[in-house]
Amino acid sequence: MSHFCVQCGTLLVPRIVEGREVEACLNDDFVLWHDPKVTTAVVIEVDGGVLLGRRAIEPGRGLWCLPGGFVNDDEDPWDAAARECLEEVCAAVEQARLIGVYHIAKQGAPSMIGIAYQARLAAGSRPSAGTEMLEVKVFAPDSLPPLAFPSHRKVLTEYLDATSRAQPEAAAPRIAFARAPHEARPSPRPAPSRPGRKQ
Question: Full-prediction pTM beyond 0.85?
Answer without folding.
Answer: no
